[in-house]
Design goal:
The chain is of the alpha/beta class and 349 residues long. Helices cover 30% and strands 25% of the residues.
């Protein structure tokens, strides 16, 4: 089977399947998605996966935590010897620079973590002996991903280091800081890590930049921004945690985040308000159109049904109403739930 393998949040398999199908069709590729509800992954079968993966850059995919090129699907594996058929299936492939043995991030996949770990310990030296894996990890070469779906069922896939997530399962491991006012701080920390590259973080998040946090209480996103040295106007009728205010970098304005506007242009605006996604998209577009901020990160809370369609509608609406050339990136992050996180920044000239 030739195709793509994508990891996603459990329960969002239909959204990733629809995204793969629509984006492949737009790029001129025929194919079909295969998945099961709550499996945590999607297979997209097509005739030329190598060309398709180039046509669908990982950074442009919203519901994929990881995007890989499928090499083989091995069913009915002999549980006493999984390695021999894997080596056989990989014969003729270019040498890999790293091996990741994984399992879907799902209720059925998590119990397979121990098997994935022990299989990796046995498969790694076998691959090196066969000349299929470098003696030391080489981040410049393609990665081999072995996804254990069941004890006798595995997916072998290839990850391009320049066009995939660098983290196992596509999940950056972030720890909840003891001083974080709320778990929502992890969402913004992950967004800055995933939606911006290292060079962009260095240039776009500088000390003494000014930002607004709409719907700030209890202060999780405000706290993250201050840790990057930004001065923040926190907009919310609710209270902020005292230690957030103690930084001396926060001005708390008791106002409605949907009506408040800054007196002068800001570097950043962030927003995690619970509201209808189209209303949020329209308000965020106003901020960019009117020049109230240069860069923005905001969340769109998705409905229970037709989430891929609503995502497309809201992002199109935002782009149209912003009325300026923007680079727009969106992802459903690991720390998101029924939502996606969007970055908007001026398009390079």
């Amino acid at each position: 089977m030739d195709g793509l393998l994508g990891y996603c949040r459990q329960g969002f398999e239909p959204e990733l399947a629809a995204e793969f199908t629509d984006r492949a069709a737009q790029a001129g590729f025929a194919g079909y998605a295969r998945t099961q509800r709550d499996s945590g992954h999607v297979l997209f079968a097509c005739e030329n996966a190598e060309a398709l993966t180039k046509a669908l850059p990982f950074r442009d995919l919203i519901f994929a935590r990881q995007k890989l090129r499928l090499l083989a699907e091995l069913k009915d594996l002999d549980t006493s010897d999984r390695i021999t058929p894997m080596l056989e299936a990989l014969r003729g492939q270019p040498r890999f620079g790293e091996l990741l043995t994984e399992h879907p991030d799902s209720d059925s996949g998590k119990p397979l973590a121990g098997l994935a770990r022990s299989l990796g310990n046995a498969l790694r030296p076998a691959l090196r002996k066969a000349g299929m894996l470098t003696a030391q990890d080489n981040p410049r070469l393609p990665r081999l991903h072995v996804c254990i779906v069941a004890g006798n069922h595995a997916l072998l896939a290839c990850g391009d280091p320049a066009d995939s997530s660098p983290w196992p399962l596509g999940i950056p491991r972030l720890r909840m800081h003891a001083d974080a006012p709320s778990r929502s701080a992890l969402k913004l920390e992950e967004a800055l890590l995933v939606l911006l590259d290292e060079r962009e973080r260095a240039s776009l998040l500088r000390e003494h930049m000014r930002a607004a946090d709409l719907g700030a209480a209890p202060g999780g996103w405000t706290w993250v921004l201050t840790r990057h040295g930004l001065r923040v106007q926190a907009i919310d009728n609710g209270p902020l945690r005292e230690h957030v205010m103690d930084t001396g970098m926060v001005e708390h304005l008791r106002a409605d985040g949907f009506t408040w506007q800054p007196k002068q242009a800001l570097d950043w605006m962030v927003c995690d308000m619970v509201e209808q996604p189209r209303r949020v998209a329209e308000r965020m577009a106003t901020w960019l159109r009117e020049g109230w901020c240069r860069h923005a990160i905001f969340n769109l809370k998705l409905p229970m049904k037709k989430r891929w369609q609503e995502t497309q509608l809201c992002l199109d609406l935002f782009a149209q109403q912003a009325q300026r050339p923007l680079t727009i990136r969106a992802k459903q992050l690991y720390h998101d739930r029924e939502e996606i996180t969007v970055l908007a920044t001026p398009a390079p000239r």
